Amino acid sequence: MAVYFLSFLVCFALRAEAFALEPRLTWQESEISLTRFQVQDVYNYSTLLLSDDNNVLYIGAREVIFAVNSQNISEKKQEAYWKVTEVKNEECSRKGKSKQTECLNYIRVLQPFNESALFVCGTNAFQPVCDILELNSFKLAGKNEDGRGRCPFDPAQSYTSVMVDGDLYSGTSFTFLGSEPIICRNSQHLSYLRTEYAVPWLNEPRFVHADVIRAPENNPDGDDDKVYFFFTEVSVEYEFFNKLLIPRIARVCKSDQGGLRTLQKKWTTFLKARMICHSPENNLIFNVVNDVFILKLREPVIYGVFTSHLNNVGMSAVCSYSLSTVEDVFTKGKYMQSATVEQAHTKWVQFNGEIPKPRPGACINNEAKAMNYTSSLNLPDKTLQFVKDHPLMDDSVAPIGKRPKLVHQNVTYTQIVVDQVTALDGNTYDVMFISTDKGMLHKAVSHDMDMRIIEEIVLFPDHQAIQTLLLSDKQAKRYIYAGSSTEVVQTPVAFCEKLASCAECILTRDPYCAWHKGKNSCVNILAESNTDRLLIQSLNGDSSHCPGMFPEWVFGC
Ligand SMILES: *[C@@H]1O[C@H](CO)[C@@H](O)[C@H](O)[C@H]1NC(C)=O
Ligand SMILES: *[C@@H]1O[C@H](CO)[C@@H](O)[C@H](O)[C@H]1NC(C)=O
Ligand SMILES: *[C@@H]1O[C@H](CO)[C@@H](O)[C@H](O)[C@H]1NC(C)=O
Ligand SMILES: *[C@@H]1O[C@H](CO)[C@@H](O)[C@H](O)[C@H]1NC(C)=O
Ligand SMILES: *[C@@H]1O[C@H](CO)[C@@H](O)[C@H](O)[C@H]1NC(C)=O
């Protein structure tokens, strides 16, 4: 009995330790006056695009696009209304959709097109359209191109897109009913490509993010630029009493041109794998990815925020992945294949047969070129047929450190952005900004292996869900922009100047903040030079170097 009790206690202590502590500091709305943007009768500020060169933030809301000053978003510069016609609105409502909400035009794609124009798409009363927004006049060109595959029909459906060299790569659904998921490329000079409409390729996905990773120049494999997609979908490989959701990473190669006969106008490089976000200490499995941010360093790092539909409702986690781990899975991992067991029941198992060459799903790299395959159009049928049937890898992508960076109870994390700061100790720190579905922003920094939430910022006092998060890190002053159903809010990355004493300044352990001995105030180090060595920063929270403090050794601890 006693032993049981003890082990229960130990276990409890361990479990408690595995969760992130509550933030040390919470900034309420009254303490920090954040800049907000909101226009009466305009809702769903869901798409944000930053143009750092001219200090503009573009905001896509319901039936309107705004340009605001990115240094002060409450300064509106321009606006372009893009309303559905009365006819379209009627037509949509006759199909059983709500006239006042669903049958409107929700801006879902805002991407740079060229120096003087943006590429924009909207749901347009369940008939998605795309257009060009001229930036000088801030008027739509009126192209009204068919937006299917680039923009969802339904404003409530998930979507993601990224513009790469003028081509739009998007993940969305292709039909009115939203039943046909698609990842496609729309290009002016490359061929249109899309995923096969088949369960093994995409199975009820909820898209969260897409981004490009450029291949290093003159890389030894002759590899290509790749576009990555992140989504949660219904698993085909696990049997479960009901639908089991699973987080995925998928990728395609930029110079894919589809196959000539097999996989004509389809991706020949579409491969996907499971992402693992699992806390081994307490056996928590996070199986829903809500957002991803890629820190594009020389060795890129993928940060994801996860929740769970399984045992641990009400908990969220952050897991990070190195791109090389991801690439190893795609370039060296095993594939899965479906096998029919009994009648009409398929089971997914590891493929152990001979893999055709060139390797299925690989970009046209040096290996393929050495075999005289210069384009996906002349790849052998065996390779193409194999990709068509085996888009799913058996190996999964494990997180850095084999566990989450952070697990937090009683929150639902929705979005993440990650900044990097070089602190006065010369080390570079990743600072994560993570939003919740209750209007909060958590700021977390990793010290050694230990990730802690150093601050919590109340962005929306009415607890609105944060739907979009954007980091501006190109300018001297760094900001985070957050969009919700009713407004956009702008916050600086740190509130150093609000910390009144040296001890408080040091105890926040914020890599942006240091105590300035000359000014006798807490300052943001990005705005100061430390040539006169007046700044004190100690990210382990040791405030003994503060003026008038005793060094720790005086007390012998
Ligand atoms: C931002 O712009 C608004 C509207 O022009 C103005 O009232 C406000 O003072 C500005 N805020 C700052 C910090 O400059
Ligand atoms: C940008 O694209 C638009 C629409 O195709 C075109 O009218 C405009 O001339 C282009 N601008 C530049 C700078 O290339
Ligand atoms: C590739 O093509 C070249 C030139 O046509 C030829 O000399 C070479 O033998 C070919 N290599 C293979 C592996 O087929
Ligand atoms: C969860 O958070 C809510 C507010 O965000 C709070 O009211 C509630 O007490 C918390 N529950 C637990 C178990 O911590
Ligand atoms: C749009 O905003 C309204 C008003 O806040 C909200 O009720 C609705 O859920 C939002 N719709 C979408 C698709 O985000």
Automatic annotation (TrEMBL):
Keywords linked to the UniProt accession: Disulfide bond, Glycoprotein, Membrane, Signal
Main localization category: membrane
InterPro entries per record: Plexin_repeat, PSI, Semap_dom, Semap_dom_sf, Semaphorin, WD40/YVTN_repeat-like_dom_sf
Keyword Disulfide bond carried by entry: yes
Cellular component per GO, a single term: plasma membrane
Domain Sema: 22-493
BP GO terms, sorted: axon guidance; negative regulation of transcription by RNA polymerase II; neural crest cell migration; ossification involved in bone maturation; positive regulation of cell migration; semaphorin-plexin signaling pathway
Signal peptide: 1-18
Gene Ontology MF terms in the entry: chemorepellent activity; semaphorin receptor binding
Subcellular compartments: Membrane
Protein name, as recorded: Sema domain-containing protein
Phylogenetic placement of the source organism: Eukaryota, Metazoa, Chordata, Craniata, Vertebrata
